[in-house]
Structures are given as structure tokens and as C-alpha cells.
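Two folds, back to back.
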Amino acid sequence: MNKNFLWGGASAANQYEGGYHEGGRGLSINDVEMGASHGKKREIHEYVHEDIYYPSHKAVDFYHHYQEDIALMAEMGFRCYRMSIAWSRIYPHGDDEYPNEEGLKFYDKVFDELLKYNIEPIVTLHHFEMPLALVQKYGGWRNRQLIDLSVRYAKTVMQRYKNKVKYWITFNEINSLFIAGTPWHQAGIIYKEDENKVDVMFQAAHYQLVASALTVIEGKKINPDFQFGNMILYNCCYAMSCRPEDQILVHDKLLPIYYFSDVQVRGRYTNTCLAYQKKMNAHFDKEPGDEDILKQGTVDFYSFSYYASLVEGIGVEHSANGNLLDGGKNPYLESTSWGWQIDPLGLRISLNRIYDRYQIPLFISENGIGAIDQQETDGSIIDDYRIDYLKNHIKALKDAIEIDYVDCFGYAMWGPIDMISAGTGEMKKRYGFVYVDLNDRGEGTFQRKKKKSFYWYQNLIKTNANEL
């Protein structure tokens, strides 16, 4: 492994930050989304109900614990931390005349704290947390006006932190727009009964792709040394059999992934994109100049989340899932308590597939296992299952780099400090190296406690993965 390889962790403001009504922050789309029970989807409201618990309001309170949490990351030896900026903390309504200085100062403090420990910030501009007012006033990403508003927000923070942040990611899991039944997190959209869902979906996708490209273009003007990445929810998918028709079904399953990354990396709607538009009978508007913007605003690196793999084929029962994805169960794999199939070798396969297609540097922006952690009588947390999961996935990552010569420059485990689940709002589904005393009802002391995996990851970084 390269001695400068970026080992670290990742989080999202809406799941981690809290402080939803502090520092001049406005409401985000997550602030009207209540938690759900195990395995169920969350419920979206039109406004905040005072008698209901909304997980994002406090989350795990990084807003007040950022110094403590960053110190814990530094103790593990983190070389990078992938985080997001909450748009509504910078522009409370998304279209305010001026940015919120108190919000900008908060992230100044966070970045200064990271840099104090030589931890490289990798900043996601849009991670499922757009201002709620943009949904209420403009209809979310249905509206082309969000391009200019999102780019103005991006320019504001890139200008402010141009000497503190080098790596930027435009949209988190941008292809979830095509995968989620209701693209609320990605685009602030709940489909209306009288609208064509496919056309709305493709129109919103085009607007976000243009906004991503414009962000890259404007960012390079601010600092030519900025490095920009996309972020894809990657689906490692296998054919159920050697039947040729099963291979075509796998090909089709990957189209929503390649659609976005082809545009962001290659700068155009490729034949793959056009084929998917035709397959879906999609129609959307483009303005003169859009194609040139896409061509100019390509990304420097490809980042992606990887948690599980699925199978596809004729007659496959879609009885497995993983991070919005669904498909068939693989009889050769074990699954987590949430039904996500554990496939370390799938990470190596995915790294090769992506690098073969695009030939630009890769970054693993999310990888981890959600589990129910139990405290022992002495207070310790023995999470050997997490260590095994990460050890096997990092072994696959090493093989991809050292045997297959894949160019990958970093790995951000999701998520180093326990945080609420994006899919269900649960707290009992824990990913972290650090336990946070909080339950699904928002009750707890917020005290941080190191798990066994904390020390394992500390040693992994110290030895640059030479001791797994």
C-alpha cells in the first residue's frame, strides 16, 4: 500500500451533526422525517410536529462534540475524514440573499480542528440534506432554478474554505435518484399522482448532472488544485446462472449506475445513457450550452459506496437488499441482521470493474457493517463481527491495488462514530468504532465509548494495513 494512502471514515451531517435549530440553521428535508421500526422506511411529514421525535434534530450531536470526536479520529490515526456540509446551515432557505456567517464559522472550526491533526477533509456538498424551503417553494430538483442556487452555495463554501479543503464530492450517491422509489433524500421529490415519474426522474437527474459539472468548473476557477469526485451507490451484481439471458439482466441492472458516472467522468450522455433513456421511454428538457457544461465539468476521481452484492436472473425472487438496492440472495454468502449480504471479494471485483471502465483514481467513500452492539458487564464492546467484516474487505482492497494494479487512493469506513441510520432513523443499527449512548427514541447521555474495533483500526492505520 502507498504510504500516503488515505485511511479514514465517513459521515453525513443529517445523520451525525444535530444542532438543527442552532447557529442560524434552517430546516432540511431530513428534519421532517421521523424514524421507523426495524426494517421499515421512514415517514415524511409536511412540517415538524412538536410531539414527534425526528432523529436528525439531535442526531448524535457532532455540533457540540466535534472536538471530542475529531480527537478520537486522530487517536485512531485517521488521514482523512469524509464529511458533508449542511446546505441549510449556510443558506437556511436555500435562496437567501446572503449566507449565514455563523454556519460558515462552524465549519471553519471543524476544518481547523481536522487540520490540527493533519486529517484531510473530503467534503461532500450534497448529502441528502437540502433545505426544506427549496421543496416547498420550488418543488425540489424538478425545478431548473436549483442549478443556480446549488452552484451559488457551492461557490460560497469553496471560496470560504479554498485553503482548508482540497477534495470535494458534488452529490452523494447521485444514482439513488433512479433507485429509490421516492427520491426524497436525493432530490426533495415525492411524486405526484398526475405526473410522469420517469420524466420527472430524468429531468431532475439532468439538472443535478449540470449542477455537478458547473460546480467543478467554478471550483477550478477558485482553486485549480481542487480535486473533484462523483459519488456512486455501486451495485455489485452477479448473474444467477450462466444462462445468457441472465447476463443481460445483470447488464440492465447496472444501467442506473453507469448512466450517472458516464456523464460525470466522460462528460456526455454515452450510448449506455441513450439506451437507458430509450428503455425507460424518458423525456426531459436540455438547454443550449448544457452539453458543453457537461463536457467541461468532468470529475477528477470516482468515489463510491460498497456494502453488499446481489444476484439477478430469470425468475429470481428479490428477497435480499442492501443500501436501497434489491435483488436475489446469493447462496454462497452470509447476511447481516438487516439482510445485507456480506461479500468482501465483491469489493475487489467492483474496484476492477470501475477502474477498467474509467481509468481514473478511485476512492472508497463508504464501506461498513450495521449491527446491534451489546455492552459487556464491564462496559466493553466486543465487536469482532465488525473487525472480521472490515478486515476481509480491506484485504480485498489491498489485492485490487497490489495484484490488479487498481489506482485507489483512499478508504473511508462508514461511519467511525455511531450515528442514526439513513434508511430507518434507528440508532440500534450501529456502524462505528465508537459507541454513542443513545437509543432509538433519542434518549441517552451522548457519551462516547471506544469499541474493540477502535483499537484494531488504529493498528491497521499504524501499520498501513500490513497487519490485518
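---
second:
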Amino acid sequence: MMLHFTPLPTAAVRALQAGGPDANGQPPERALSDGPGTPCRHCLRMIPQGAGMLILGYRPFPALQPYAESGPIFLCADPCPAGGGPSLPEILASPDYILRGYSRQHRIVYGTGAVVLTGQILTEAAARLADPRVAYLHVRSARNNCYQCRIDRA
């Protein structure tokens, strides 16, 4: 099965980079990256040390509903190209992540969530997406549950 690592939508990112409100209705905070550990959810690369970045609340769901978690993320402060594709993105540099499946109705598909070693993400994602109940996956931090990116069928 072909997979696609999907970044945040460019239009939404450009609005945030222009100072538009985050999921909490607040403008993104501006800061300078201190280096490792600041993954941009749009270019799917680490924000280099000293580069401008945004810290904001994000909800990776189309509408409010009980499963629509929101939480903190980082973005490059300046426009960056959209990342994504079939390969593991640079931002997935920790030893492990949470993979969690969601239905077409954007609800958790129970039994699909697990902490997965980074080297096993491609295999585990393909296995979860083979389940017809699963429309897409989230990759989240295994330590803080922060949203990293989405995995779709290519």
C-alpha cells in the first residue's frame, strides 16, 4: 500500500503566518527556534536554530466534535513549502510515536491506537489503513500527544 504523509493545509498555514487566529482564537506566538525539537507541521522539517517560528493551538479536524482534540504545534514563521509524500518526514526524529486511526466521520477507530517505533511507522500505518473503517491516521508525539502529521492512502 502506498502511503502519503500529509502536512497542514497551505491555506490554513498562510493565514496563521499572517497572524490569523489559532484554534483558541488567539494570534500565534512568535519565537526563535532553539534548534532540535521544533518540528514545522507544514514543511515537515525541523525549524533551524535561530529561525523564526510560531507556537499556536491547532485542531486537525474540520469541525468541533467530541474527538476533535486541539493542542500546541510549531510552524515556520515565514512561508515554507508544503512537505509530505511517501517517505518518513524529517520531523519524525523521536524514537517512537502514537499512531491512531480515524473514520470518515473523524472519530477514533478504537483498537488502532498504539505507540509505534519510528522505524516501524510505514509498516504499522499500512496495516491500520488496510482496515476499511480507517480513513486516515494521525501521528502524535508519544510523550506529549502533540499532533505531528497525518497519514493518508496515496
